[in-house]
Amino acid sequence: MKPVTLVTGASSGVGRATAIALAARGHRVFGTSRSPSGDSGPVEMLPLDVRDEASVASCVATVTGTAGRLDVLVNNAGYEQAGALEELSLEEARDQFETNFFGVVRMVRAALPHMRGQRSGRIINVSSLAGLTPIPFMGIYSASKFALDGYTEALRLELKPFGIHVSQVEPGFLRTPMMGNRKAPARTIADYDRWRERAFAAIREYEEKGPGAELVADTIVKIATSGRPRLRYLVGGQARFVATLRRLAPEAAFERGSRSTFKLDRES
Q1: Does pTM top 0.85 for this prediction?
Q2: Which residues are catalytic?
Q3: Mean pLDDT, residues 175-183 taken together
Q4: Where are the beta strands (DSSP E) in 76-216?
Q5: Are the CB atoms for 216 and 234 separated by under 8 Å?
Q6: Beta bridge partners of 83
Q7: Distance between CA atoms of 240 and 245, rounded to whole angstroms?
Q8: In terms of C-beta distances under 8 Å and separation of at least 24 residues, what long-range contacts does 243-249 make, across chains too?
């Protein structure tokens, strides 16, 4: 029997690459998009808005009703809200969490009754290096990923007795379509302009030099097919390097390094 996998945010980037890679490994893959269209190849596309309870329930019910089970849930849907923290409205902050954090919570709640009934399953949450160390002028995005980190770790502890493995992937900067889809704040504050522009220029430089979505997809396939998947998977040399520094370097030294990375102390 083919493993049945549901990948959210599968219209492009990491989600699309993951869905295709898992299908190539023999999974029956359902992908989601808010507005699925066109030829989806080996992936069965479904409509889904992770911010909407009814949409989530309908999506999971369609998968389990069609395939009879759900073995792997890949929570990939998300977006990046940019801007200084002072610039962002509470509505913008809530919207970021509704998708990146509560969207995962909704998907997990919908999937767990089926996985517990099977006494098996895999939940793989796509996080970010931003969930280990914050990115300036991407602070609310970082906060949503920090929240996801804590949620994922607690979930793993709670679900082990049911044979359900929980993991998360934490890539560094990636060269994917998300680079061009970052959401700007509705209002900006001129005092931040110089440093915001420096940070965004540095981010763009790192993204253009970064690996593509396939590296993350390969890691997710590894988790989905592993007998004993770990909790965290750092993806890319940059992510592993920064995570090591965060663990070993003195706090002040790490902060200086972060400011240097994003050119925040450079002279005009």
Answers
A1: yes
A2: 11, 127, 141, 145
A3: 83
A4: 121-126, 164-171
A5: no
A6: 138
A7: 9
A8: 243/129, 243/132, 243/133, 243/170, 246/132, 246/133
Side-chain half-sphere exposure of 7, counting CA atoms within 13 A: 30
Question: Which strands, in side-by-side order, build the sheet including 44-47?
Answer: 44-47, 28-33, 4-7, 72-75, 121-126, 164-171, 232-235
Could you tell me the two tokens for 142? 């970082």
Residue at 237: amino acid letter: G
> Using only C-alpha atoms, what is the Rg of the chain?
19
- The percentage of residues in the chain with a pLDDT greater than 90, rounded to a whole number, is 88
Q: Which domains does the chain have, with CATH numbers?
A: 4-261 (3.40.50.720)
Whole-angstrom distance, CA of residue 26 vs CA of residue 66: 17
Strand-pair partners of 126 = 169
Distances (CA, A) of 21 to 29, 129, 144, 217, 241: 10, 22, 27, 7, 27
Cα 29 to chain centroid, rounded:
18
What is the spatial distance between Cα 143 and Cα 135, in angstroms, rounded to a whole number? Answer: 10
Work out the average pLDDT over 181-193.
95
User: In angstroms, rounded to a whole number, what is the distance separating the alpha carbons of residues 64 and 75?
Assistant: 17
Measured CA distances, 243 to 1, 183, 249 (Å): 39, 26, 10
Question: CB of 170 within 8 A of CB of 129?
Answer: yes
Return the structure tokens found at 94: 């809530």
Q: How confident is the model at residue 166 (pLDDT cuts 50, 70, 90)?
A: very high
Closest of 52, 50, 61, 57 to residue 15, by C-alpha: 50
